[in-house]
Amino acid sequence: MLVLGIETSCDETAAAVLLDGTELLSSIVSDQIKIHSKYGGIVPELAGRSHIECIHPVIEQAIEEAGVTLKDIDLIAATMGPGLVASLLVGLNTAKGIAYALKKPLLGVNHLEGHLLAIFLEEPVEFPFVALAVSGGHTELYRVDGFGKYRILGRTRDDAAGESFDKVAKMLKFGYPGGPVIEAKARSGDPDAHRFPRALLGNGSLDFSFSGLKTSVRNLLAKRERGERLDISDTDISAGFQEAVIDVLVTKLMRACEQEELKRIVVSGGVAANGALRERVTLVGEDLGMKTYFPKPVYCTDNAAMIACAGYYRCRDNPLSGDNPLSLDASACLALDS
C-alpha cells in the first residue's frame, strides 16, 4: 500500500510517501520559524497563509522524491485534528481535492495518533505499552494496546510542556522556538542554583500542570529586574527550569507504568527530541528494568511520515467504509480514543 501523508496541524507544512507502513520513500517538511520568530510564538493567521503558499510545492516535492505519481497512490492520509483550525483546513481540503479529482480513498488522521505510532517508522514495539506524547501543544499519557486502541491516562490541565519551554525562552529573550535554545543553554547551567516547583498534583494523579512553573520563572526574573541581588544566570535558570519539567514528566511516566503494570515505554512529540529528557527516561527505565523507545528527532517534531504511518495501520486493520470522505472536517480539539 502506497500512502501519501499530509500534515498541517500547526506551523509545519509536510508531505510524505510511505510504502507498506515502514519504507519511507520521501518526507518533506517546510517550517515557518522565520515567520513566527519575530513574534516569539505562532500567529495562527500567518500560519494558515503560509500553508496555503507551501502545500502544493511540498506535496509535489514529496511525490517527485518518492519516484511515483499521484495516480500511484493507494491512500491519502491527512491530519484532521487536533491543531490550529486555520492550518488544519489547508492540508485537509487539499487532500480532499486530490482524492476527489483522482478518485482516491481519503482518511482523516488524529495528529496525536501519528505521534504515538511514529516509532513504527523505525522499529516494531510490542503491545501494550505506555506512551508519553509531549510537544508544544500536547502533554498526554496513554496506554496503547494496539493500533487504534488507546486509553488516556493523564493530560496537562493547563500549559503543554513544549509551550512552557517556548514561553520561558520568550521571557529570557532567547527567541523562538525556545525548546532547543533552552536545552543548549541548560548544558552549561547549574540546575541546583534555583529549585523551581514541581506540580505533581498528589493522590496518584497522572495529570500535568506547568503554569505554576512558568509563573515561578516569571517571578524570579521580576525580582532580578527590580535590582534584587540574585546569584543566578540565564543558563542556570534554563537548567533549573528544564530539570523541573523533566522531573515531572519522568515521575508521571513511571507512575503510569507502575499503575498499568507495563515495562515498555514510548516517548514521542517535539519535546521528545530533547536530549536531557531522552537520557533521563533511558536511565530511569534501565534501573527499573523497562524498555524505552524514542523516534529519531526528525520523527519527533511534526511530520507527515507519522501521519502516513497512522493512516496505513488504520486502513490495514479497518478497511475504509463507503462513507463520503469529503465530509471530513477539521477539529481543533479532536480527542484520541479507541
How is the topology of this model organized?
Layout: E1 2-7, E2 12-19, E3 23-31, H1 33-36, H2 44-66, E4 75-81, H3 85-102, E5 106-110, H4 111-117, E6 129-134, E7 139-146, E8 149-155, H5 161-171, H6 178-186, H7 211-225, H8 234-260, E9 264-268, H9 275-287, E10 291-293, H10 297-300, H11 305-317
Parallel strand pairs: 1-4, 4-5, 6-9, 9-10
Antiparallel strand pairs: 1-2, 2-3, 6-7, 7-8
CATH superfamily of the largest domain: ATPase, nucleotide binding domain
CATH topology label of the largest domain: Nucleotidyltransferase, domain 5
Low-pLDDT ranges: none
- Taken together, the total number of domains comes to 2
- The Cα radius of gyration reads 20 Å
Largest sheet properties:
5 strands, mixed
Share in β-strands: 15-25%
Our measurement of the CA-to-CA distance between the termini, rounded to an integer number of angstroms, reads: 23 Å
Shape: globular
- The overall strand count is 10
Mean pLDDT: 95
**CATH architecture descriptor of the largest domain:** 2-Layer Sandwich
The CATH top-level class label of the largest domain: Alpha Beta
* Range of helix content: 40-55%
Biggest sheet: strands side by side, in what order?
3-2-1-4-5
Q: Helices and strands: which structural class?
A: alpha/beta
Count of individual helical segments: 11
The arrangement of helices and strands along the chain is EEEHHEHEHEEEHHHHEHEHH
